[in-house]
Amino acid sequence: MQIDVAVLIGRFQPFHNGHATLLQLALETAEEVVVVLGSSFHARSTKNPFTWQERADMINATLSPADRDRVSYIAVRDYYDDARWSAAIRGKVERHFPYAKRIALIGHFKDASSYYLNRFPQWQLVAAEQLLAIDATVIRRVLFEAEDMRVSLDVISHYLPLSIRQYLKAWSILPHYAVLVKEHAQLLAYHESWKPAPYAPMFVTLDAVVKAAGHVLLVQRGGFPGKGLWALPGGFLDQNERLFQGAIRELFEETNLAVLASTLEHSLVDVKVFDHPGRSLRGRTITHAHFFDLQTEHLPDIRAADDAAQAAWVSIEKLEGMEEMFFDDHFHILDQFLNLTEGE
Questions:
Q1: pLDDT score, position 65
Q2: Which residue windows are transmembrane per the record (predicted)?
Q3: Per the confidence metrics, is the pTM higher than 0.70?
Q4: Among 160, 220, 229, 239, which is disulfide-ready with 327 (CB 3.0 to 4.6 Å)?
């Protein structure tokens, strides 16, 4: 059966030889290929160091001019919801190729993380049988721990196409690379401090979504990880407090919000749990986000404190355009309460 379009889904952080094998299979399967770039619209982090545009450029650099004309790209955010995520991909592919009757999904059942391939029963699965075992996490670690980038890239040369090695060498002289190196070192030290624990730690945190006069209250992080990124006021639960008490305490500590605790208690609209295993680079972190609607026409006074570099009331209308400036999954949390991407 002739295939109209072949779809390849991945994060490609960065694009490596295993990905290149799958892309070649896609090109052999259909005349037109669409590469779905997952985890798009994130702020840069050690897990997602490359923007979706940079990843598209990376992949294009490995292709001949003729093949480049056959490949298009679709950027998809993380929804932390499998059903919503797969529906978004199907919708974007079908809108991009409205004439396509026969669509193939290209993939490889590497490990448990490959379960997403079963989320598209409408498409014909074309699975690669054997691939070189490559862990992109190892590549990123080498990248961020390199003392001499040329030597480090030579060590992992069998994992990467030549054009990608050249791309990474040029990318590493840009200013954001040094910031990510610092963040990587901080996260390593953080994880090292928990190694003596008899089991992998699980953290409980609180976040506060405070709405007033068409604005929400945000803080800008003052330290790593996520230094300079916007976030919800929040932090870790203390041993001797309830979840609601912890959310109020962290909110006051970071923003000095000029509202009585009793007012916040009456303004609580909803509490949602966000527990995706990959939502935080610090480790398995389960947060309880408390949504407060003050229902006021004015914005209460605030002043940044604790580890917040600044606190600010931000118009809800501006939030969608700030998606790539948020820490962890905090844009997703806002989206859950405020339906920021509902129009999509």
A1: 97
A2: none
A3: yes
A4: 229
Instruction: Tell me how far apart the alpha carbons of residues 230 and 217 are, in angstroms, rounded to a whole number.
Output: 10
What was the pLDDT predicted at 114? 76
Q: What is the CATH number of domain 3-176?
A: 3.40.50.620
Contact yes or no for 26/33 (Cβ under 8 A):
yes
Q: What SS3 string covers the chain?
A: CCEEEEEEEECCCCCCHHHHHHHHHHHHHEEEEEEEECCCCCCCCCCCCCCHHHHHHHHHHCCCHHHHCCEEEEECCCCCCHHHHHHHHHHHHHHHCCCCCCEEEEECCCCHHHHHHHHCCCCEEEECCCCCCCCHHHHHHHHHCCCCHHHHHHHCHHHCCHHHHHHHHHHCCCHHHHHHHHHHHHHHHHHHHCCCCCCCCEEEEEEEEEEECCEEEEEEECCCCCCCCEECCEEECCCCCCHHHHHHHHHHHHHCCCCCHHHHHHHEEEEEEECCCCCCCCCEEEEEEEEEECCCCCCCCCCCCCCEEEEEEEEHHHHHHHHHHECCCHHHHHHHHHCCCCCC
Residue type (1 letter), 94:
E
- For 211-227, what is each residue's pLDDT tens digit? 999 999 999 999 889 99
Decide if 3-176 and 202-338 have a common fold: no
Domain 202-338: assigned CATH number? 3.90.79.10
Structural domain boundaries in the chain: 3-176, 202-338
Residues in the chain: 344
